[in-house]
UniProtKB/TrEMBL annotation:
Official protein name in the record: Methylglyoxal synthase
Keyword vocabulary terms for this entry: Lyase
Purpose: Catalyzes the formation of methylglyoxal from dihydroxyacetone phosphate.
Gene3D superfamilies attached to this UniProt entry: Methylglyoxal synthase-like domain (3.40.50.1380)
PROSITE patterns noted in UniProt: METHYLGLYOXAL_SYNTH (PS01335), MGS (PS51855)
Gene responsible for this protein: mgsA
């Protein structure tokens, strides 16, 4: 069983935001190494290659990766979502992006969409504590 303080963190970024996410992950690698990381295909492989962190890769976003992460959330498999989506470029899989964000809200998953939000999440102290999230299924 996963330790109660170990969080399952999904890392996702659109192409124009991958550099920013990678930078944030590098800045916070000391903390992130204590958690279980996963993400969409390309984001995961870029982070793993450039930081040495272990990141479980799902499919690339346009090929269904957002839907896989959404399914994980609905199965109680993700504790935090860091999703640097691109507000300036339309995505071929925009419905999947919207669905992922919807499901993250529905299941009350702490979600950050930019560097400052991610900093707040990581520095809130919540990440190192055991906490119970609201279960929308109840
Ligand atoms: O498109 C994405 C999220 O919507 C990200 O997918 P990749 O990490 O495979 O680039």
């Amino acid at each position: 069983m996963i330790s109660p303080t170990k969080k399952r963190i999904a890392l996702i970024a659109h192409d124009n935001r991958k550099k920013d996410l990678l930078e944030w992950v590098k800045e916070n690698a000391d903390s992130l190494i204590n958690h279980e990381l996963c993400g969409t295909g390309t984001t995961s492989s870029i982070i793993a290659k450039n930081t040495g962190l272990k990141v479980k890769a799902y499919k690339s976003g346009p090929l269904g990766g957002d839907q896989e992460i959404g399914a994980l959330i609905s199965d109680n498999g993700i504790d935090l979502l860091i999703f640097f989506w691109d507000p300036l470029t339309s995505q071929p899989h925009d419905p999947d992006v919207k669905a992922l964000l919807r499901i993250a809200v529905l299941y009350d998953i702490p979600t950050a969409m930019n560097k400052t939000g991610a900093d707040y999440l990581l520095q809130s102290g919540l990440i190192d504590k055991e906490y119970e999230r609201h279960d929308m299924q109840k």
